């Protein structure tokens, strides 16, 4: 099965974005934004982006309904209105989206999950989707960094321990620190309904 990637576009000129896709031989983009439009980067609105990708020979599919960070189901939110990724990961719609990604991979497509955030550590493409794929399906996601380098999901989750200042010690092994750091990062970055 081919590798699975993710990429964010924030502040990236479209030609740089396309060059990075070519660099990693990506031939399909799965847009996982709940709202496939950008206030600041109009080249990344759904329709012009799909056209630019088509012109570059790259398939485009919108999966924001299935894999986006904003659920329409109130059961996926806590009492403060913040989406809970662990709840969303069990939703039928989310799981259907995951199966659509795997179906594309079975066709030997090199897929990149696309969202806006520059750093995947602050984006649901790692905190929701990459986390689920690594821990529930044993499928690693390679995150294309802003400069075009790669960071795999396991390394990203170890980086979350540094970001959250949660480090293993004599009483708390890394296997306990990793989920604590993930939970803290989700609490800081998961979508919250406006008041």
Spell out the blueprint of helices and strands.
Elements: E1 4-8, H1 14-23, E2 28-31, H2 46-55, E3 59-62, H3 64-67, H4 85-88, H5 92-106, E4 111-115, H6 124-137, E5 141-144, E6 150-152, H7 153-163, H8 174-189
Helix pairs in contact: 6-7, 7-8
Classification by helices and strands: alpha/beta
CATH architecture: Alpha-Beta Complex
Average pLDDT level: 96
Q: Percent of residues in beta strands?
A: 5-15%
In terms of quaternary structure, the protein is single chain
**Main sheet strand line-up:** 3-2-4-1-5-6
Order of helices and strands: EHEHEHHHEHEEHH
Q: Which blocks of ≥5 consecutive residues have pLDDT under 50?
A: none
Biggest sheet features: 6 strands, mixed
Provide a count of the helices.
8
CATH topology: Protein-Tyrosine Phosphatase, Chain A
Shape: globular
- Taking all Cα atoms into account, the compactness measure Rg is 16 Å
Distance between the termini: 43 Å
> What is the highest CATH level, the class?
Alpha Beta
Tally of structural domains: 1
How many strands in all? 6
Protein traits:
195 residues; alpha/beta; Protein-Tyrosine Phosphatase, Chain A; 8 helices
In short:
The protein is an alpha/beta fold and 195 residues long. Helices cover 43% and strands 13% of the residues.
């Amino acid at each position: 099965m081919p590798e699975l990637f993710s990429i964010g576009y924030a502040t990236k000129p479209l030609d740089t974005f396309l060059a990075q896709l070519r660099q990693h031989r990506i031939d399909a983009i799965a847009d996982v934004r709940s709202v496939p439009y950008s206030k600041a980067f109009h080249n990344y609105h759904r329709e012009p982006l799909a056209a630019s990708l088509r012109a570059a020979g790259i398939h485009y599919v919108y999966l924001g309904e299935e894999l986006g960070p904003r659920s329409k189901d109130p059961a996926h939110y806590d009492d403060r209105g913040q989406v809970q990724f662990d709840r969303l990961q069990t939703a039928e719609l989310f799981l259907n989206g995951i199966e659509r990604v795997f179906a594309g991979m079975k066709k030997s497509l090199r897929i990149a999950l696309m969202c806006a955030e520059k750093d995947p550590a602050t984006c649901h493409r790692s905190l929701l989707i990459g986390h689920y794929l690594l821990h529930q399906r044993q499928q690693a996601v390679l995150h294309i960094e802003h400069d075009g380098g790669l960071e795999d999901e396991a390394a990203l989750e170890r980086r979350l321990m540094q970001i959250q200042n949660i480090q293993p010690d004599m009483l708390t092994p890394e296997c306990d620190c990793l989920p604590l750091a993930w939970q803290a990062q989700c609490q800081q970055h998961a979508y919250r309904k406006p008041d």
